[in-house]
Amino acid sequence: MIIPATDIQPGSSEAYDLCIIGSGPAGMTIALELKYSGLRICVLESGSEAAGERDDLGAIRSEGIEVRSDSRVRSIGGSSQTWSGFIAPLDEIDLKDRPGLHPGWPISHDELYSGSDEVGYRYKIPSRNRFGEPWSNNVEHHLPALPGVHGKIFKTQEPVTRFGRRYTHAFLSEGFDLVYGATVTSLELGPGQSELAHVVGANCATDSGTKIRIQAKRFVLATSAIEAIRILKNSGIPDNFGRLGRGFMNHPKGYIGRVTFNEPLPKSHDFFKVSDRGYTGYVGLRLSDEVQENEGLLNPYLRFEPSSIGTYPEAKQLSQTLRAFTASLRKRQFAAAGKHVAGLANLPGILQTVQRIAARLLSKRQKTFKWARVRCFMEMRPSDASYVTVLPEVADQLGTPIAFVKHDITDEDVRAVARLAEQARVALQAAGIGELTVEPDLAGLLRNDASHHLGGAAMGHDPQTSVVDTNLRVHSVDNLFLAGGMVFPTGGSANPTMTVIALSIRLARHLVPDMPRGKVVAARDRTDHAIVIGAGRRVREDVIPALEAIESIEIDKVYSTGLNAVFGELECYETASLESLTADQLQQATLIYIAVPPAQLERVLAQVTKSSVRHIALIIDTPAVDTPRIKSELAKFRQAVLGEDSVLLPWIDALPSEPVRAVRMQRSGYRYHAAALARALVGRGELAKIKATSGKRDNMTIAFADTATATIIGPRNYRTGTLELELNGGKVLSSELAAENPIRPLISGRLCVGFRCGSKEVHLTEQESALLGYFGAQDTVVTRMLDLKRVGLKRLIEATIRGETPYSHEFGLEDATMKW
Prior knowledge:
Strand content: 25-35%
Number of strands: 35
Structural class: alpha/beta
Largest sheet: 8 strands, mixed
């Protein structure tokens, strides 16, 4: 369940098998990998769904390289909210013992990445073998051999996986909980069963200032490196050898020069942004292993950024001010927002913003590039001189000492960059590619935070030189594990997210060595077999949960365009390509649900109807699409239904019997879904026919054939939107709980079990209550509209299986083609 921490009563006993602190890529991966383990799991997150709402708790002080104020995010999904999607594994040399530089990792490259090679695609992380391949369809632009320099392949997710947006749907059932707005201030130590310390609880502060305590048998601290070390130090975790916080690292970055190409290079060159089977990517340059080992050098890398954009410092400052201003408004901190108003009147920043937009548009139109900026990401040698600690005399608003970070680049770090730049210059010149020039003050240009905060709690065998063991358990505590960049013994120069996810998969497999594929559920009498086509948000959040909640249905397979996975309540569904769908599989199916973009619908239907589908009921997701080909394909199925779940929202049954003469939806519905809901509310058992419409887009009035009307005002915002229904007798029903005649949810424990409107009550089935997830006392039929639509979808699927047509394709076309 997704539970706001403010709804947990102080002093209540919340006990779990495993408590994970942090919901970023590390914490979320561990939770999802253990979803079907049978463990009661709780993920604690300081922030909420909106990025930036709790960033005021991240205030720190830093010395040397200044830690950027926006480098850490408190929100569901953590650092993935600001991640640019760059992916690369560490090089094998990064894990080696390098005398004079670093001790290396206590595990091998295979041990580190074998788990992500197998299941990393669940998080859109490719296996290692994808980083040794040439780019597809780009044979003519491969790099030539460059003596002393190796190409380093990076891939980029597009779109970037925001872990909060993509995976929170998995937290639906009780016992697999995500508690947000819960800021862990300390871990409470108690007696264990050995001489080691033992964590008995996580002490949290909520947004309202109340204190709660979460108990668990085992804990995983999966926050940022800086926050993890702050929590450990504020908790008094035994640090017998003074290693906690030492060896903090980053990837200091900067533009260090320019490369001018002898012949303009096309956009499709390996140096630049190249498409590669579901990703984009580029090749950077690093020193060969031989040069690094012979000369005792670290492993930085260079990348070439072809651009006429340039640098616009005033525009950047204006952008940061605007983000701070909007974050303050979201939190209703109007005094804080007022302090940023003057900064918004930054005329140079406005002019530079316009210039930057124009430069970016020009750059996108270019097909070849004559020159590129040279950007470097450094490897920092782990050193005790770089560390994280806390300042007992300086506390945040929760009374918790803040972190102090000291780290800076050294001559040794810079020497590796200078050597790489020189070797690259010689190699590029010898290959006839171009001339690389470097600015003189490398140290000054590179002293910038890359937000890749690593180390401080390094992994190792020896407690005298490390903080966690090879299974990521804190040496001095018997039930506390760390997950994330803080355990890196060395940092290399690759973006760390792939390695963080690989470590998290490895830790999950250690915590539960024999992971089942799905939950153990009672045997069902399944008479219907469903095929799902699509693996996007709609499928993840609604279709799979709704199908799983229907006991007569077996989900045979989920198909998508690429290797993917969908975390359902009962199991993780590994997807297959639609081309692999066979006639035998179609013969067994009784239901197909298609949820793909409208532009793909014709192609998908054509693929499915290569075999006979006369026995199959089809549900197509909204919006409805109209072409002669689609109409022809739909006629081949037993029946074709539009997946418009708004017409079967469960609270509609609780309304009085009087007809509805006016529906007023104030920011409480999205266009054609709102029109469909209005049809259901006015028709009450038989969908109302539309007579006329007026207005457009976000201010639409619909006149129905029986004189009833609906007014739909947008844009949709379920948090603040309202819904009013005026009955023929003049009574007004409202979604607002404080109204005279509210549509009131019935709450039992943490579940909604039904609805009441006046003296009339309706009740949900046990499966339907579970489909809604956590339901708070302040939740309404509008604030929980999306979850209620999931119950509506379950009912729509059940009706379709019975041979009914809850919402026709023709109705959907009428809704979708209004003047929205």
